[in-house]
Structures are given as structure tokens and as C-alpha cells.
Amino acid sequence: MVGFARLLLSILPIGLVVTYGYEHRMSTLPAFNTMLLKVPKHGIQRSSFVDRQRLRPLPSVLSERVLERHRVEGIKRIRCVMNGASANAFEEARQAVLSNGCRLLNAARSALGIKPEEKEEDQLKSQAETREQVETFLRQVEDEVRGWVKQMQGMEEHNIAELRSSLDALYEVLSLGSALQWTKPASPMERRGTWRALRKKTDPSTKNLLFAIERLRRRYDKGVRRLTSVAVPLTEEEIKDGFEKALGKKAIKDIEDNLMFVSDTMKPLTSEEVDARLMDLDEKWKYGMHEAEEQLRAGIERVRYHISRKTKRREVEKGAAAIHVRDGTMYASALGGIVEVPILENMGVQAFIDDKDENHIFMGIQGEAEESQHVATLGSIPASATRWLSCARQKLWWMSPDVGDRSMPVPAETQFLLLELGLGMYAVMLPMVGNSFRSSIWGTEGSTLQVRIESGDPDVRTKICPTSVLVAAGTDPFLLLERAFAAAADRLGTFRIRKEKTTPSTLDVFGWCTWDAFYSQVEPEGVKHGLRELAKGGTPSRLLILDDGWQSTDNDEGYRIAEGDAREDVSAAELAGGGVIEGEDWASQQLTSFKDIPARLLTWWYTSVVEKSPYNSMPVKIWKWLTFNVIRNDLLKYFAEATDWSKRLTSINPNSKFVQLGHLVRELKSDFGLQYTFCWHALTGYWLGVDPNAPGMERFQPTIQYPCIDPHFDYTPGMLSTEPTMAWNPSSFVGVGIVPPMHIRDFYGELHKSLHDAGVDGVKCDAQAAITMLGAGYGGGPKITRAYVHAMEQSVKEHLSGNCINCMCHPTENLYSFKDTAIARASDDFYPREPASHTVHVYNVVYNTLFLGEIVHPDWDMFQSEHPAAELHAAARSVGGCAVYTSDRPTVHNFDLLRQLVLPDGSVLRAQLPGRPTRDCLFTDVCKDGVSALKVWNHNQVGGVLGIFNLQGAYWDRTVRNFVMPDHRPPDVVAHVSPQDVERLPSEVGRYAVWSHKREKLFLMDYKSKMDIKLKPQESDVLTVAPIQKLQGVKDDKGDDALWAPVGLKKMFNGGGALLSHRVCGREDHPILQDFLNSVIDPAAMSGGMWNVNRRWKLASAPFSSKFQSNIEVDDEVERFVADPDEEWLWHLNQLTASPLPSLSEKENTMRAHLTVKGQGSLLFYSSARPRKLCAKPLQASSAACEASAEGKKPLATVSEIAGIRGDRAWEEWDFEYKDGELTVELPEMSSEFGSGRWELCFLWEKS
Q: Average of pLDDT values for 621-633?
């Protein structure tokens, strides 16, 4: 095959030069990549024959008799060359083709009997011009082929370098672990001898790992050899040498003899035979390269995984299960093998174990042939597995949860599957995303699980799909998920888990988004009005998201609207979700005459029948035919007049409304105290991408790309079974203008730099899933998606400090590409006009967070405070650990509700983790079973929080693909609440103080005790769960050990979030360090929180780290602080007190409870003994160093500036109320200045 490829590189230009030159009188020759090979800009080979550009055969001048005589001989020659038997044939053909252009052309014309029509002088002039054109063409060939070879070799060298460095790192780890001195042998035989010599010196686990390394290395060597032999037919040296000889003045053999050789070789073949052979070569070339790439990538993934498990010191939780396969069944065993339960039974013959360690198995799939789509059986859910939870895609953009048992099939396009195995065991299955292929799980009748693997490009095929599904098991479902996603990240190397990313500071402030307030009709005055009203109500926004509507966009020519579209006179409150006029409403407005009756009937038939029919059903097929052949223009007119979905980006610069975007941003920050301004854009630029014909956009070389679906491609992705409407949306009609991956970094860099120059702090990157359907010709959906997402993240990191909200991004191709960005939307939109959507929205965000929360901080979306479901949404956001932002229309607010979420300075009381369902709710259908309540748990910096919700009555129906509300009078439910619902929240005495926000009542509960709370439809409550601890040496009135627990603010949803730190101590902590701390920093600079100082002042010398997000006693950290004061120094300062704690007497008989808090109003504590005294001191920042500058930039404060804030604040004695164990302190009212309302409190008891 390599020999034949070389022959083609040498032979084909002659035929193309002769044919094209004769018929077109030697007009400008086309570039080489449009003749033979489309030189890969994305690592993918594309041939002109794949694009159905047939090769023109050489004009026949030989008689039929001569052809017949030479046919057999010619075919034999081609076979010899294809088998690599004729080495000289390649050199001869290359010399013939690449020699003097004029002699070649004249000899070819003479041999073919073509008589020139020009006069002799004209002929000589033509020959000179021809020579120059041919030499120009040959230089193009040289440059493009050399560039391609360099790219392929560069890829190979990069992979080999990565492999070798990885192996070296692993060797070093092994040598450190087993005192093994590793030396690389010179040959495989010596290496094998070394293995044998080491066998007796190593422990069994190390020995097995050494054997595994050897097996992996052999597979890599094989993959590298295969990739080299298949993908690099000519070396750079060969090309350079050949062209130097061809373009030089050295003598060559007689051109007629060479031409006769070429004629004898090519002429006996008909044009169809030539096309067939070239097509076969092209397919073998491409598919062989793809399979080699997949195998090489899989090998690198294996090494990366094993190195990461060692070097990152991944901890395996107690209760992690070992996994093994026996007799076609996969088992999980824990507790030393005492407990063993099956995970999968009747495993499919196409599934194989690609790699494994003790706690994880990576399954691969081997198909029967090279295909772009594979469907294989994984196995069946065992009878002992009682229930499952899946997160499956409900639309192209979003996924939603489903629960069931083995009698119910797992939904199509499942991207996350959790099984309850029985005996307290759980298993998780994660479909993976490889180099060019993605996986998803599909259930069938009879509890069988299938894996569907697809590339998103019919020309990207493979037979073997390694690393298709990850399987892990354990006894703690939450720790299991954390471990499984860490293993997936280590394996793929394309994303990082949430714990390894920086927590964005934007999560801790209240925000406002313009979307549901204005949709794309937003204007600067409306933005100012909205921010002004929120500030007047006492809940100022510190984050603005300027959503869709600020960019320069337009429809394609022929559908452009001179003046406002159909939405111009429609208020935002009357528009449907997405800011559009519903198709039915638009039809009723446009189709008003008698002749429009057929169109109205067609609209009714679509909404009543087609929308609810499966993709392959007859109604969908009829509608699809109609959309492309009858009503295409009518649908495009609707999209152009009633939506934004058919528009493209026409310029990087803002539109005429926001032409002064920089001035507007500075004004908003100055007038309203904004700290962050985000702007919206789609991953492809806009909904239909970039306009290739727009002035100034040509520098990014955008092209129109159609989704990889019928009728544009002979390909039917599994996504169409979930969302058939993708087959007739605007992208299917007119395509998407995409920037090629090689230029996408330039596009994002220019876009984000312009936003940065305007004072914008971040972006909301929307419509990300669209790119997953546009990978044909670019290596498939996973490859182009990874290129886009990584380019976007790099640009955001460079220009906008990494501030990005990912949206409409739930395909795993997107999620498994998030290396740096740390926020992503958790579900479909908040739909103000869709009553059935609100309980489902809460259900979706909570259960999707199980999956998303291991990769990013899930964003539970905006809501509107003056809405029938506002309290439900507000309660959910308070326990979600997510950002809190609304999309209220100006003057339409419920400030009583907002003040339970937002403090007067614009900060929020955010829980610390992604909010997830409690363990007893994991597999419960809290929307449809009629009896169950949803419970959501989370942690605060001190204590825990538990949200309870009645979501019964509505759900997402995957059959009709819409929200349904079968019961308009949903039932009341009872939530069974227990402190053990909050995971990993220990109490010293096994008791807890639980505060009900709705009922305003404090309960004392044991760890396993339960309390029943009745909830009406859409009713919710938020419970603060505070562990109780002993006050050592303090007795209550009964003579028992005194108990104590800080609870939180009474009037806030998540009142426990007001407690920023807490410790109980009996003496002054570390007096030696006190003088040092007092001279350096004052608690005022800390904004009262462990992390707010980093977020508020952006200290360059104190980078934020999320690895210390728990309260750690100072005693445990002093030695580390003294040894290395530069590392996390601000965190240590934040843990210590900057002035001596108050005392009851000079004797050390005082027990103290020391806290830092923020907020205003009633602060609740539980104490079985009345304190003797309460002392307090403000931690309020009030320095110019802490205020925003006139330009609206966030200030930078040095240590000396912060120290200047300190002053000599003394402890003040405060009053408090104490009754029946409830201790209440009234915090003073806060100001609107950000960072105000922070206090340091110290309760004092006298020891007995």
C-alpha cells in the first residue's frame, strides 16, 4: 500500500497536467490538495475521490487492439507496484513526472497525438508559460506534502515523547516505592531478562505492575510502527531529495520511454477501475490511520492512568470494592471478599477488558468491521440489582435524570449510570470519550445494556474501540462517584475534576442576568434600570450577565429584515422560552385568510402528531420530506422573523445598541458597585456560527458546515432518536458557519481580548453542544469539540482570568473537555411561562449534579423572584452550592424573598459543595411516585444544610419529548428528615440542633432519629443541621456537661452559611504568633471569611486554593505555617486571631467559643449552659484600598495596605437573649458596602 501511494504521488500529476492543460489551455493549475489529497488541517486524510471528484482519465490514443494486448501486462505492473516489488518503477515515474515541465508536456502531447493549434512563435511562448506554471505547481506540491509529513511526524514524535516521559516517571515512582534501581536495557531480550531477574526482588503488586508496563510498551511500539507505516508514506528526506533532483539540471532518461511506462501502467485501466483502486487505497489509508491513532491514544491513556494513580496519590475510600470477571459475569467484592455481588451478567462477546486495576475496569468494544458506528451488548443488569439511576440526554444540549428497576429499560443516550447492587453496594458506569469516538449506554427490553459508539463522521471508522466504559463499585455512592470521575480524568487526560480547579469568586455574590428580563431585545438603558431597582430594594447585584442581544448578527441574504422582527412589539413576559414566538402563535398571526387553512392544519398536525412521534415513524418521515421540499422557505421565514436561531455573527464588535460597551461597563461598575460583568456568546460565535460573507470575518476562514445527519450525510446519529427536531432546524437547512480548528484560537483570542479591553470580566459560553454535530471532515464530533473547548478555555484563561459559565454543554464530548473552566449549567432553562417545568427543573439540577458536580460547580440557572414558583427555586439555590442570580424584569421583584438569599452588601450565603440528593432519595422518583419528597444535602463552612421539596405532579416525558402535568392537584408528601441525611457531618456527642427556616423552630435530634415534615405541592423548607459538641469543664444547670452548637441566621434560607469559622478553645492560641500576626494583618482584611479575602482583593501573592476548604484547628497547622510561611500564608492568617481573645479572669478557667460571622439580624445558637459573657469586634473593611477604582477595576491590596486598615479595635461586650437553650444575638444592620457586616464573636463560660 505504501508503494502504491508513492506511485500515485508521482503518476497522478502527469495525467492531471496533460488533461487539464489540453482542455483548459493551461489556465491556472489547481492546488495539489484539491487534486489528490486534502492536506489534513486536523490530522485527518481526505481524498478528492471521497468528495466524489472523479479523476479524469487520460485521453485514449491507442487502438483497441493495442489496449487489449497491453491490458494484462499493465495490470500485472500495477499489482507489482502495489506489492512493493518494483522499486525502480517509483523512481522512474517520479523522474518522469517531476522533470522539465515543457518537455514533459510536449512529449505527452506528441505521444497522445495532440497537434498544437498555435503558430510556432506562439507555441514557444506558450511552452515557456507552461513551464513556469508547471514549476509553480510542483513547488505547491512540495510545500504542501512537506507540511503534511512534518505534521504527521510531529504528531508521532509528540506521542512518543509523551509515552517515554510517562514511562520514565513511572519507573522513578516504582524505584522509590520498592528501592528498585531501574536501568533501561538495550534490547527487548535484555529487557525480558531484566524482568526475570527482578521477579524475586519485588513484591507481587510491583511485579505485576512491571509486567503490565512491558505489555503496554509492546502495544505502544506496535501502535507507533503501524501509525508510521500507514500515515507517513514519504519521509521528508525522500521528498526533498526527489524534488531537488526533479527541479535540477541533471540529465534524465528519455521522456518518451517514461511516458510509455506510465501509459502502459495506467491506460489498461478504465476510469472506473482507477477510481475504484484509488477509493480503496484512500479508505485503507484513512481507516488504518484512525485505528492506529485510537490504539496509540489508548496506550497513552493506560500509562497516564497508572502514573496518575501513583503520582497523584489518589486515595481509595474505605468500602471501595474490588472488581473482577468470572464466567461471563462481572462482580464487585468488598470487606475482604466477604460481600460479593454481581454488576453485569451475560456479558457480550464484543465487550472486552481493555485495562483494569483493583478498583476499576475499563471496557472496550471490538466490532465485526471498520464502522463509524458500533452497537454492542455490555451485559444485563442482575436480578440482585434492585434499582438504577441514569442521566441521559433529553435534547442535543441537555440531559435529565431517570430512575427505575431492572424491569424498565435504561433510557437511550445515557451518559451516567448508577446501580444499587444490594447488600449496601453501588456500582457506577461511565461511558467514555476517546480520540474520535464517544460512547453512550442504551437499555433494551429484558434489562440488557448496550453501548453505542459513534464518531460523528461517516469517514472516521474503526474496528476496535478501547476505553469505552469505566466501571467502579463501592459502599459509599458519593465517594464512589468522586473516585470514578478522578479515574476517568486520569485516564483520558482531557479534563480535570472539580477539586483540582479554582473555585470562582463569582459564586459568592448575587447576580442579575438580562435574559428573561429582555431576551435579545436588551438595551443599555434597560440594563441600568434593572441594576438600579435591585440596589434600591436592598439586594444589589455584584454580577451582571449581559446575555444574548449585544452582538452584531444578521440572517442570511434573502431572509434579512429591514426593520424590527415580529417580536419588536411583544414584551419579554409574553415571549416563550428562548425569547421566541411559539410556532403556533406565529402561525395564528400570519395565517389569517381562508387560503391559509391548509397551512394551519399542517401546523396543528405537527404540534399534535409529529412532535410526539419517534424519529423513524411515518409522520416524522413525511414531515422531514415536507420541510426540505415544500415548506423550507416558510420555516426559514419563521426562524428569521420570530427567533434568533437563524442568525450568524457578522462582526467581533458589538452591535449599534452596545457600540459603547466599554463606556457602559465602566459606568455600571462605578454607579452600581458591580464587581463582575459577563457577556454572552455561543461556542461557534452565534446560533448559526460566523457569517463567511461578512466583511472582516474572512480572516478566520469560516465555512458552512452541515450537521452530520441525513440528507447531508449518510449517517444517523443516536441523538436523533432523542431529539428528531434536529433534522429540520435552521442548521440543517442552511448550515452553520464554523471557523476551522486551526483558526479557532485566533477567533476566540480576538473576541475575548476585545471584551477584556471593554472592561468585561468573563463570558457565558452557550450553545456548546452544536459543535458535536459538525465534525464531518474534521475527525468527528469528539475531536472538533475538544479542539473548540480547549481553545475557548485557553483564550478565557489568557484574557478573562478564566471566568466562564459553560452552557448548553451536556454531551460528554463537552464535559470531558473542561480542563480549566469550573462552572457549567446543570439543566435546561428556567421557563417562566411553562408551569410544568419548575418542579422538573429542581429535580433535574439536583440529580444531574451527581454527575456534573465532580467536574464543575453546577449552575442551577437564574429564576424570577416575583413568580409563582419563586420560593421553590430560591430554596433550591440556597442548598445547591451554586451561584444565585435572577432575571427579574425591572420593577418586578419580590424583595422579601430576595432578602432571605442576599445580604445588603450583595454577597450570598453559599453552601460549600454541589447540592446532591440524600442517599435514601438516590433511586426514588420524587416527581411521579406520589409519596416521596426530595431531600438535598450540603455542607457549610460550619455545619450542614438540608433542603426538602415536594416536586410531585409533573415530569419530563421522553416519549412525547416535553413536560407533562397529568395531575393538576398533586398530593401532599411527608419528608422523613434525619441528621444522618447530611453525609460526613460528625457530632462529638451524636446529637444535632436542627433549625427549620419555614417553621422557625429549633429541634434537637439524635443522629439516626427521624422527624416527619408535611409538605404541600411545590412547598419546600431548608433545615440547618448543626453538630453539637461538649464545652469541656463547663456544667449546665443539671450538672451535666454543657453542650453547644452554632446554628446561624434565623431569617435566611441557608442561615448556617453566615458562620464563617468556629472553634472552641480553653486558652489563648499561640501567643508567640500573635505579635507577628498583629503586626502584619488585621481581620478586617479577611472580610470575615476564610476565602473572601482572596476573592475580594485578588492578592497576587496568595493564590486561591480549594484544597483547604474545611475548618482545621490552628494547632494542626502551626508547625507547617512556621516551616513554610509563604505557602497558603493567607489561609493560615485567616485561621488565627489577630488580637488576644477576651478572658473572664487572669486564671485559665475560661472556655471560649470563637466565631467569625457575616450578616445582620438574629443569629441563633444552641447552648445548654448560659454564657457568662459575649464579646464582639467588627471585621469591617473601610479603606480606600478596598474600594473599586474609578475605572471599575477590582482593587489590588498589598500586605501593608491591609495592615493599615487594622487600627486598634478592642473587644466590646454585647447583650444576648437566652431561653430554654436557645441563645440569640442581634447583629447590627449592614451597609451596602461590599465586605461589611463581618464580625468576630467570642462566647465565654467559666469552667467548673
A: 91
Q: Hey, what's the cell of 206?
A: 510491583
Nearest of 785, 844, 864, 843 to residue 818 by alpha carbon = 785
| DSSP-assigned states of every residue in 644-686 | STT-EEEEEEE-GGGTTHHHHHHHHHHHH---EEEEEEETTBS
Question: Is the confidence at residue 125, as pLDDT, over 80?
Answer: no
DSSP helix, strand, coil percent of the chain (3-state; round to 5): 40, 25, 40
Minimum mean pLDDT among 110-124, 423-437, 555-569, 708-722: which range?
Answer: 110-124
Percentage above 70 pLDDT, the chain: 65
pLDDT at 852 over 90: yes
What's the one-letter identity of residue 716?
A: T
Per residue, what are the HEC states of 81-136? Answer: HHCCCCHHHHHHHHHHHHCCHHHHHHHHHHHCCCCCCCCHHHHHHHHHHHHHHHHH
127 plus 98 within the same structural domain: yes
Taking residue 199's Cβ as centre, other Cβ atoms within 10 Å add up to: 12
Angle, alpha carbons 1074-1082-1211 (nearest 5°): 80
- Per-residue pLDDT tens for 196-227? 444 444 445 444 555 555 555 555 455 545 44
User: Among 1029, 1056, 1073, where does a domain finish?
Assistant: 1073
> pTM of the entire structure?
0.74
Q: Do strands 551-554 and 46-47 pair parallel, antiparallel, or not at all (unpaired)?
A: unpaired
Is 484 in a helix, a strand, or coil? helix
Tell me the pLDDT of the chain averaged across its residues. Answer: 76
Residues 6+ apart with CB under 8 A from 455: 372, 373, 436, 437, 438, 461, 462, 775, 780, 781, 782
Q: Which residue's C-alpha cell is 460547580?
A: 857
Rounded to whole angstroms, the Cα distance separating 215 from 712 reads: 43
Tens digit of pLDDT for each residue in 1066-1089?
754 433 333 333 333 333 333 332
Residues 628-657 have pLDDT tens digits of 999 898 889 889 988 999 999 999 999 999
Percent of the chain with pLDDT over 90: 51
CA neighbor of 734 nearest in space, from 561, 552, 616, 558: 558
Those residues whose C-beta lies under 8 Å from the C-beta of residue 911, and which sit 6 or more positions away, are 878, 879, 880, 881, 938, 939, 940, 945, 1054, 1057
Q: Is residue 1217 part of a domain?
A: no
Task: State the Cα–Cα distance between residues 923 and 660, nearest whole angstrom.
Answer: 52
Together in a domain, 285 and 401 = no
Which tens digits make up the pLDDT trace of 80-115?
Answer: 333 333 334 334 444 444 443 344 344 444 443 444
Domain boundary at 1026, 1042, 1073, which?
Answer: 1073
305 in the same domain as 252: no
**Overall number of domains in the chain:** 6
Greatest CA separation for the chain: 125
Query: Are residues 303 and 172 part of one domain?
Result: no
335 and 211, same structural domain? no
Residues 6+ apart with CB under 8 A from 78: 4, 265, 269, 277
Q: Where are the beta strands (DSSP E) in 260-413?
A: 322-326, 329-334, 339-344, 351-356, 360-371, 373-380, 387-393, 399-404
Residues with Cβ within 8 Å of 629's Cβ and at least 6 positions away in sequence, in order, are none
Q: Which structural domain, as residue segments, surrounds residue 957?
A: 926-1073
Residue scoring higher pLDDT (306 or 721): 721
CA angle at residue 1091 from 1087 to 1097, to 5 degrees? 60
- Does some domain include residue 364? yes
